């Protein structure tokens, strides 16, 4: 099940405030305290371009010194990454981040994966356009799914749309 509480996480909000001036968004933050130190993974995204290695390095260089100082003598293992092409959603907040992107949603109402483009999101639902119910092949121009019926969700990629009109 997806959660709906990442925006209430203090660490998420702190890192979001650190990187928002770079025109980047935080997708997810995971922090694990270990006996010898701390392991932290930060996933970032840009709405208007692809995240590149320069972005990852810049975010790392902003976050690492701050949290290394806070940890004192404990070690910090920090990983900064992009969401990738098929990221599994952890929080409903991710629907707002990936507006306009293709995603797959497992719906308990349809008992099937539904693939479509994220068109609109509100506090309780997501609207997919060009939606296809994968088990039946049924297509919808628009399909509204309530968060309560969404069991899983992930980014998807329609390779044929990328390759339309290109010859090999």
Net shape:
elongated
Which architecture of the largest domain would the CATH scheme give at its second level?
A: 2-Layer Sandwich
- Estimate the helix proportion, in percent: 10-25%
The low-confidence parts are: 163-168
Number of domains: 2
Structure summary:
This protein has helices at 10-19, 53-71, 93-97, 159-163, and strands at residues 25-34, 37-45, 75-81, 102-107, 112-121, 125-133, 139-146, 150-155.
Explain how this protein is built.
The protein is built from 4 helices and 8 strands. The strands form 2 sheets. It has a 5-stranded antiparallel sheet, with no helix packed on it. The protein has a 3-stranded mixed sheet with strand order 1-2-3. The C terminus is likely disordered. The chain has 2 domains: 76 residues, Alpha-Beta Plaits (2-Layer Sandwich), CATH 3.30.70; 67 residues, SH3 type barrels (Roll), CATH 2.30.30.100. By secondary structure, the protein is an alpha+beta fold. The protein is elongated, with a radius of gyration of 18 Å. The N and C termini lie far apart (41 Å). Strand 5 and strand 6 form a beta hairpin.
Q: Which SSEs are present, and which pair or pack?
A:
Elements: H1 10-19, E1 25-34, E2 37-45, H2 53-71, E3 75-81, H3 93-97, E4 102-107, E5 112-121, E6 125-133, E7 139-146, E8 150-155, H4 159-163
Parallel strand pairs: 2-3
Antiparallel strand pairs: 1-2, 4-5, 4-8, 5-6, 6-7
């Amino acid at each position: 099940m997806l959660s709906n509480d990442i925006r209430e996480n203090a660490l998420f909000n702190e890192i979001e405030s650190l990187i928002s001036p770079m025109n980047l968004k935080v997708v997810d933050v995971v922090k694990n305290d270990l006996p010898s130190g701390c392991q932290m993974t930060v996933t970032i995204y840009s709405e208007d371009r692809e995240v590149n290695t320069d972005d990852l390095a810049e975010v790392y260089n902003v976050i690492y010194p701050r949290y290394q100082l806070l940890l004192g003598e404990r070690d910090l293992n920090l990983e900064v990454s992009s969401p990738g092409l098929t990221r599994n959603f952890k929080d409903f907040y991710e629907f707002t981040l990936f507006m306009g992107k293709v995603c797959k949603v497992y719906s308990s109402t349809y008992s099937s994966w539904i693939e479509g483009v994220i068109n609109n999101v509100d506090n309780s639902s997501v609207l997919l356009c060009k939606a296809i119910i994968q088990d039946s092949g049924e297509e919808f121009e628009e399909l509204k799914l309530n968060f309560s019926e969404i069991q899983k969700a992930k980014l998807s990629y329609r390779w044929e749309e990328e390759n339309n009109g290109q010859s090999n």
